[in-house]
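Progress against Task 2.4 (sequence-to-structure conversion) is shown through the following example record, which the project officer requested during the mid-term review.
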Amino acid sequence: MQEPSPTPFDRLCTLITGNFSPPPGARRILVSLIYGCVCHAIFAVAVIAMIVVMYTGMTISVGRVPAPWSWAVNMCLILQFPIGHSLLLSKRGRKFIFIFAKREHAPTLQTTIFATLASVQLSLLFLFWTPSGVVWWIAEGEARWILTGLYACSWGLLIKASYDAGAEVQSGALGWMSLLQKIAPNYPDMPKTGLFAIMRQPIYLSFASTLWTVPVWTPDQLILSTLLTIYCLLAPRLKEKRFQTRFGAEFEQYRTKTPYMVPRIKGINSN
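Structure tokens generated for the chain above:
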């Protein structure tokens, strides 16, 4: 009988506890720790910037490009994320990732480098956006509390979905911790539990939710929300092609019984 796959919590605990007794190799340990510190520092900057800047309707970024060039620069900042993110997930993109580490370490550090580059992209977008200075609406009183609660819940769902998919992969920890322990990265199986049990793309849905639950609305926020929501709807199709190739019949069975992005309510919707 096949043993059940370890839970996300068990996988994460096993990976973390292994860091306390790494095999000898001062140089390898130093390299892994440097990559880990850089990755998680930039990851933290990106997440904090996203939460704070979007909550204010994209009004407090540090970009100061004069109009009308500011709109062109802002559009480039938006587009570089979905385009770059998708390219990095391609076969050609993986080769690009390998230039950021020595040949012997690059395969192991793949997830760490990817998470770092994605965090740099998000940091550029949210920190260097040039605000238009136009504010359409600011929620006040009960409306602000409600939207703030929805915004917090959206971020909570995004964290939960990322955890269900494999926190070690999503955060980039898998790469550098595997190098530290001198082991091959143990990638999680295809996610089918937690939020993935009721929809195939909870990460993209929850990310899109963060875009539309902010309490401040500006032209900047509307443009950002619209374009990134389109990305959230379309990009998972490419992801599912990769899953189809990798997991074959297992993914096809999962795809057949699990809705794409809207949880199935019996008698109302079907996929």
